[in-house]
Amino acid sequence: MVGQKGRGLQLHDPRIVDAYVSVLFEQLEYHKVMENLDRLIQISVEEWEDSDQVTYEKLDHLITESMIYAEKFCTKRYSTKYQWSPLLLKAVYAYRYARLRLKTTNGIPVTPKAIQYHQKQAFITDEQHRELDAVEKIVNFLREAKAQMKSYQKKHVELRKEYIEGLAEAQILKRFPTAEEGTDFFNKQKEKQLKALSNRESTRTMHSKIRTALNSNQGGGRTRVDIPDARELLSINGRPYGDPSEPKEWKGPWITITEPDEIGKHIRISNIKQYHQAHDTPFAKEPLRTLFGADGTTSFAQSFLQGTPIPTKYFAQLQPETQRILNALQVPVEYRYDREAIITPSQFISCYKNVDVNTSSSYSTRHVGHYKGILDRPSLVEMHSRMMTLPYKHGFKVERWTDVIDVVLPKDEGSCYIHQNRIIRLVESDFNQSLRILLARPMGHFLEDRQEYPEMQYGSRDGQMSISAVLNKVLSFDIARMLKVTMVSEENDAIGCYDRVMPQKVSLYLQRMGVLVVVLMSVCLNFEDAYHYIKTAHGYSKETYRSTKAVPLYGACQGTTVGPFFWLIIFSLIMEAFDPDLKGMTFYSPCRTIQTARFGDAFVDDTKFGVAMEPGDGSLEITDVIVQNEIQQILTDLTKLSQHYEKLLYASGGALNIRKCHWFLIAWTWVNGKAYLKKASDSPGKLLLTSGASTIPEEVPRIEPSTGYRTLGAYIAGDGNMKKALAIGRQKSIDYAGLLSNSNLNRCEAYFSYILYFYPKISYALPVSTFTEKESNFLQAPAKAAFLPKIGINRHSARMIIHGPACLGGLQLPDVYTDQGVAQLRLLLGHLRRGDETSRLLRVAISVLQQRVGAKSLFFNLPYTKYEGWTEKTWLTSTWKFMHITNLQVQITRIPLPTPQRENDVFLMTEFVYLGFKKRDLELINQCRIFHQVLTLADITDADGTTMDPVYNSKQRHPDRKSPLQWPNQGRPSQQAWRQWKIALHSLTLKGKKQQTLGSWTTRPHQHWYWIVRLSDKALFQNLPEGWERYDPIANLGRTRSESKPWYSKASI
Asked: Which residues, 6+ apart, have CB-to-CB distance to 331 below 8 Å?
């Protein structure tokens, strides 16, 4: 292992940057870099020769050496004992210089380069250097230099203060070049700058102390790895532990490796396996490997994109999903990308202005600071932008760009197993940002604007949030539970998606969109010929590995600017080739004006697929036989859906880790009109999938709908419970309390440890959480019990003071329940205004819940405590409850709300609430209401609105009326429920008649009446499937003692 080098160029001091730029200009001018670059940039594509590429490599090497030399010249040397200042640094170098000169007089060999370097750092002139020509003079100079150094070390704090003041003045002059020293403006700005510098230093110290106290120091790399112990292959019972070369399957003991070179060796072997995983996928095997080549730029690839089919003898050998991928690549596009491969100085400046100076980069020690420090030097900006352009203009690789660093991070905190690593590839900064400028940013916007990305993908896209994908899952489960429909959901875990991306398909897709072939050739060459160095806590490995013909390596490089972009292209291609006839999840609003049809949701490679049944129309009794048939049907549909995705993923170079996937079922058992979720033991079923080229199906693990699981950083469950999330959050709170109690943090440090380190850990998933206020307090209690005394507050202080706003004298500490409610509202209103897929899901969920509530007004604006008794506990009801507690109201357009159908019409559930029925009784009443599929009083009365239809007082659905709305599934209510229903209906009547007669119809009834009478001529109409049948009245057929009862004869319409 070779120790890694620290950065010398720091951008916060303009004087250091100016010194760096000055030395860099001298070096570039000495080597005539600009002149040679001017000649290269003028060479056309046709005239470019191999010798020109050699010249480019020489220039690149000279520029790199010049940048490193200039940085070294202005580098600060830090000491842990004394605060750094230029004067102290100068005195130290003067002392070291004198010691080197004394060594030379004593015959000890010292290189002239070392003496010259220390002379420059100590600012010793050549004349002074020549005057030290005798031992006595050198000894005297050494004594003076040592005395000066000791003197400066004693007053290092004052010297540091002077340096900070000088730094503040330099920064002011850089921002305001015309400002004059001594003026009021200059002094005011200096005071501000000094305060900012002081705050920055104290903040850095504070965060370092907090990280140490909370054990949250990050970085440093691997210090150990655990590998299978190959010395023990059999258990005590004689059973084999597995193959030690396959750690994922190993069941035996492990050994720990701590020796640096051995760590690098084992990580190198593991990384090669990781990058080689896609070798058995279709595009890595014949015949596609030869047809398209390694980068998809062969002559056949060009003709293929123009419509030339793959030879039939080859095409017939491929799996159907691979054929669909190839067919999708040949579909013409309406718009083509026509941008030239040129990086302009303005693009260079715009890009590097937004890059964090602390971003890790290359093996060559060029770092982001080298580029950010010269953004106000036009000639240097143009030099770098030209050097970045030439490889893409002529399609060649850059030797420096092929040196990459593999940083290995554990997938799980604290895990050291060799197979549980995440590889982050660090490439040269200019290479990385050139990919951003030429491909990731403009091409990403181009595809986004033309809606080429699938809507279900939320990862690696501007304006999309991972929490939205989680909300989609939560809403899907909520809708299924509110509608009481059968639904199955599967969470897929792809194996190293970035490490398995095939460059041919990315290249073919981008060529199809109009990207120049020469650009893609350069990109693929630099990736394909990369030399990989391993970085651990001990430094860089001496040995490298690379792709070979025998062991080709693939991958889109997680850590580069194009890694997410390339995977997004692969996923877009998969969904473009997806079979649209497969069944997924389709949800409607009750009036069917809002629809959402989707297969699932995805964030990068984490995908969720689901299949849901639609509610029945109420004509059939819900029995266990029907439910079991539905379960078998949706399991069959999900198997087809998941297997189709797996084969498309395999055709794209990816694979599913079937053992880490899982699925669960939402199905119902009806007991006395109330639905209960079935357990796995009550609804047997298996999900079997094949993986890759294998024909042997594997069983996907199944979990209960009540089991919480982790998805995109949040913990959710199919039945909506928050037990798992609460347990995880509570444990984080307990851990923080223990660390904080044993720390020596002061009040300010303790405060920021809570706000910046602990609270973000528990608040990320709050927008999709449904904690009650009691649960929120339980989660936060241990942390607050330890935190409040640390900041000098009694832990029993009123929570109104602790969480109250600062303007009213409160501490304004965040509260989990309040922040959850606010985050829910932001997510709700933000998506409703945006009108995306989540918006449609929200509108469907709101409409379904509105129907279950059975009220006229939007339920958000109703008192939650009066309507909670018969509503399913969902994300929307959690938001509703928060709005009720905080007395908030909301107006939402584009949500179809039910309206009264006649004059004096009332909504049944609102009327029953007004009449004072208890919550338990209202739940039973609502079961009967949904069973009869009625909303208002007009739905249960006769046509003239004077009498209640006796059918609705029975246990049977009305034979002559049918609601066209989509209603939730409802089993036959219990006897107790029917008794409460009759009592409720009786409260609306007086001696069998309505207490208040309904007036004229104000809108079209939402029920379909099978029989209607036209008042003008008393004609009777029957609604039949083939159309309306009319019956005319027959006159003079007698009358009863009370009224005339006409007879009708059939007539044609």
From this structure: 576
Contact criterion met (CB below 8 Å) for 556 and 501? yes
Angle of CA points 720, 703, 688, to nearest 5° = 130
Per-residue pLDDT, 196: 85
Structure tokens at 1004: 């079209």
Helices (H), 769-890: 773-790, 799-803, 816-834, 837-853, 864-867, 875-885
Query: Over the stretch 453-490, which tens digit does the pLDDT of each residue have?
Result: 999 999 989 889 999 999 999 999 999 999 999 999 99
Residue 887: both structure tokens together: 């007395």
pLDDT score recorded for residue 1052? 46
In a 3-state reduction of DSSP, which class is residue 532?
strand
- CA distances 277 to 421, 566, 845, Å, are 15, 17, 42
> In Å, how far from its chain's centre is CA 435?
22
- The band of 1048, judged by pLDDT with boundaries at 50, 70 and 90, is low
What burial class does residue 186 get, using C-beta atoms within 10 Å of its C-beta: 0-12 exposed, 13-18 middle, 19+ buried?
Answer: middle
User: How many CB atoms are located within 10 Å of the residue 311 CB?
Assistant: 11
Identify the CA nearest to 487 among candidates 630, 684, 681. 630
Q: Distances in Å between the alpha carbon of 376 and those of 436, 441, 581, 1013?
A: 21, 23, 57, 85
- This prediction has a pTM of 0.89
| Contacts (Cβ under 8 Å, ≥6 apart) of 730 | 778, 779, 782
The whole-number pLDDT of residue 994 equals 55
- Share the mean pLDDT of the chain: 89
388 phi-psi bin (left φ>0, alpha ψ -120 to 50, beta other):
alpha
CB 503 within 8 A of CB 294: yes
Q: Is the dihedral of CA 724, 725, 726, 730 positive or negative?
A: positive
Q: In whole angstroms, what is the distance from residue 292 CA to residue 283 CA?
A: 8
The mean pLDDT of 771-790, rounded to a whole number, is: 95
Tokens 């984080």 found at: 732
Contact between 407 and 558 under an 8 Å Cβ cutoff? The reply is no
Contact at 8 Å (CB) between 573 and 333?
no
The structure tokens listed for 648 are: 């498309």
Record the tokens describing residue 725, joined without a space.
Answer: 């999330």
Q: Cα–Cα distance between 628 and 635 in angstroms, integer?
A: 11
Kindly state the DSSP code that residue 902 receives in the 8-state scheme.
B
Q: What does each C-alpha distance from 1020 to 811, 1005, 1024, 1042 come to in angstroms? A: 74, 18, 13, 21
Sequence-ordered list of residues with C-beta below 8 angstroms from that of 4, at least 6 positions apart, any chain: 535, 539, 540
Rounded to 10 deg, the angle between the 86-105 and 112-121 helix axes is 150
CA Rg value for the chain: 37
Q: What one-letter code names the amino acid at 689?
A: L
Q: How far apart are CA 756 and CA 216, in angstroms?
A: 12
CA distance 1027 to 1036: 29
Tell me the longest C-alpha to C-alpha distance in the chain. 147
- Give the Cα separation of 628 and 669 in Å (integer): 10
Among candidate residues 841, 480, 927, the one with its CA nearest the CA of residue 667: 480
For residue 1046, list its beta bridge partners: none
Rounded CA separation 689/700 (Å): 7
pLDDT score at 412: 78
User: In sequence order, what DSSP letters do the residues of 389-447 get, joined into one string?
Assistant: HHHHHHT---TGGGEEEEEEEESSTT--BTTSEEEEEE--HHHHHHHIIIIIHHHHHHH
* CA-based nearest residue to 769, from 733, 812, 819: 819
Q: Are 325 and 577 in contact (CB under 8 A)?
A: yes
Decide: 9 and 370 in contact? Cβ < 8 Å: yes
Per residue, the 3-state secondary structure of 951-1001, as one string, reads: HHHCCCCCCCEECCCCCCCCCCCCHHHHHHHHHHHHCCEECCEECCCCCCE
